[in-house]
Design a protein that fits this description.
By secondary structure, this protein is mainly alpha-helical. The protein has helices at about 35-105, 110-160; strands at about 1-5, 10-15. The two termini are about 70 Å apart.
């Protein structure tokens, strides 16, 4: 846009691009426009439906968060018990190994060494079998207790949906 101002008359003249026969467009004025009642009603229903869906999603996500929290707490408790059992087993096996080493120092003949070694292997096999049974039972208990909150939550969700 070019503007020139003359000093004597203080008039402003503006020159535009030439008119090529293009129609002039103006923005419509929305000052006093009324919305149709059907459109307003549809919009209000849409907003109400969105609020309802949001509320339901919020409740569902809170329940899911609670479910995960209880599941993780149960799993942490069970794994702590499992780790304590492993530590107990390690202590018992370490004590047994030191006892065996102490007994080996008192051996006086090869036949006594073979007898002591055979007895030690038999004893350790029985102990290891019992320890494995205990660990399997504990692992199964931890898995069952950890899965219980999930099972309960899913059952409630399906019963509510039905």
């Amino acid at each position: 846009m070019n503007e020139t101002i003359t000093a004597a008359t203080k008039t402003k003249t503006t020159t535009f691009l030439p008119d090529y026969g293009m129609p002039k467009f103006e923005m419509p004025k929305f000052d006093h426009m009324e919305m149709p009642e059907a459109f307003r009603e549809m919009t209000e229903k849409g907003v109400a439906h969105a609020k309802d869906t949001y509320a339901k999603a919020k409740v569902a996500s809170e329940k899911a968060a609670d479910l995960f929290e209880s599941t993780f707490a149960c799993a942490a408790k069970g794994l702590t018990g499992y780790n304590l059992k492993l530590i107990e087993i390690t202590r018992a096996n370490t004590r047994a190994a030191f006892d065996y080493a102490h007994e080996l120092m008192g051996v006086k003949s090869p036949s006594e060494l073979i007898e002591l070694s055979t007895a030690q292997m038999r004893k350790q096999f029985e102990i290891a079998s019992a320890q494995n049974k205990d660990l399997c039972a504990l692992a199964q208990q931890v898995a069952t207790e950890t899965a219980e909150p999930i099972k309960t939550g899913v059952s409630k969700a399906f019963n509510k949906a039905a």
